[in-house]
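Narrative progress, year one. The postdoctoral researcher (J.K.) led the effort to move from monomer predictions toward full complexes, under supervision of the PI. The following entry was the first complex the group processed end to end, covering 368 residues in total.
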Amino acid sequence: MILIAIVIGCILGAVIGIYAPMVPYTYSGYLAIAIIAALDSVFGGIAATLNKNFDLKIFVTGFFGNAILSILLTYLGQKLNVDIYLAAIVVFVGRMFNNLAIIRRYYLNKWPSKKEENKNETEKSK
Amino acid sequence: MQKKQIAITLGIMCFALTMAIVIQLRTVYSSTSTVPQVLVEDSLRDEVLRWKEKYDNTYGELTESTKRLEEIRKLATQNDITSMAKQQEITESNMLLGLTEVTGPGFQIILSDNNTGITSEGNKVLDISSQIVHYDDLLQVVNALNNAGAEAISINGHRLVQTTAITCEGNIIKINGQRISSPFTIKAIGSPATLSGSLTMIGGYLYIMQEDGVNVQTSQSDSLVVEAYNGVINYKYIKLKK
């Protein structure tokens, strides 16, 4: 159910994105940082689901809050002539790697045990 | 119920995320960002330099070939009086066309822009443009030199031949299609005294330019070398009339 919703959302988003008006090049930097923030939230959400402590409220506010906050920080950085977006990218990508590591470990732990279960079942049937 | 809610929110979020990613991809693809622009510029500059080198090499080869041709002609016509006369004629024609380097007594002028804004009398100039060497100044000087009997003229190493045009392209001057800029070294072969007198006399063109504040240096010489024309004279329409 969740997987189907994600796939449908992705396909719809891609189709509408192709026909949507283009962003002016000056603002594409803000959009990029928002995308990084959103991707971070999604990976965080997946990791939280695997750890069974997923909270919809935290997830939704993190998704939009991080995106908007990172855009505002980038804008502020441009006004102050400091590359704040670099800090945002470091934080978000660092967290992304953390979350990816959690997801990877979860499946790595799951994989051998499944194999063993299968083995046990086949031995039992014999 | 809880699961359905999560699915819908996740779907909406993925929708927003993919839409943003696709829009961003399209924006990045459609616009040439600054980094590729620098790369393109660098590669273009490289190409220009490579072509320049190639041109120089080829030009060197051409010069050598012309020299060899001259030698071969000389050898071939050594024992033949009529062909020797022909050879003489070819050499002379080339010299008159400006295709060979020539030397002789002459007059050299160096004109350069004066950026100080002060005239030769020490007053402030009203129009700074009058202290800059323009293309029509060069035309006037060349005209005066020709009028005084100059036989070969070159400006910054560019020989003036019958097809030469001196043009103004924005803030640069072009001679034979090649850019030149201040200071301008004008060399003319002819009677040094006549050439000098016609330009530097009171009311002469160089006199007027000097009064305006342009930097003018002149020198007379007994053996001035005027460079050969380094282009190709093309013709498409002219024919001999029978």
